[in-house]
Amino acid sequence: MRYRLTKSKFIMGLQCEKALYLDIYKPQLAFHSQETLARFRKGRHFESKIKSMFPGGIDISMELRGAVQRYPELTARMLCEPGAVTLFEAGFQYDEVLVLADVVQKAADGTIKIFEIKNSQTIKEVIRHDVCLQHYVIGNSLPQLSEKSDKALVLKSFDIIYNDGNDQPLYEELLSEAKAAEPLIARQVAHFKEMLQGMEPNVTTGSHCHMPYECPYQRYCEGKATAQTDLSF
Ligand code: SF4
Predict the structure, then answer these.
(1) 216-233 pLDDT tens trace
(2) CATH architecture of the region 5-221
(3) Which of 29, 44, 71, 222 is the least buried, fewest Cβ under 10 Å from its Cβ?
(4) Atom of ligand 1 nearest to the CA of 21
């Protein structure tokens, strides 16, 4: 099934609509600094450590590798089978948005806990937006999946796991906050999809190019040389 947006693209769009537009139509122009790449590496290290605390988890990304468009299908099949299961990088798609959830734990009674892992010592606003988007997609996917499952699949909790500064996990539950944000997320998704039908947005550079993340399209916007790095999701 076709998807238009992902979690990283949605977050990029909140930072700058032009960045989102470029990421869809001209991703070869992206340039990531060594600092950004080091941050990604540290994030992956923390994520691996936390995932090791969920024994027996099945990693959808190891099963399907780069075939991301097939993640939702395999995720659905595994969640709809009877019994408990823990999935890593579980894929869900709704409203042309694809999200990959770090950890999805389904109990035998059909209740589901989701954990998003962030190598951050505080829960920044951008992390809250990330969780709200995931909740929007997953929460709207589960009723359809429930029709194929022997038990209704019910989202019970959505936790952020973040870093206490010593690579140990801290937890915060955000399900209620994410539920309340659903109408706002739906409007934002619709707005981005409409924006992507048009011309490249005319946005000038400024402080937003560095917050919350260093934009990978700064060289393009400043008229400098570019290089390509594909770091979706
Ligand atoms: S460099 Fe700045 S203006 Fe250009 S796409 Fe990125 S955030 Fe937008």
Answers:
(1) 999 999 987 544 444 443
(2) Alpha-Beta Complex (3.90)
(3) 222
(4) 5
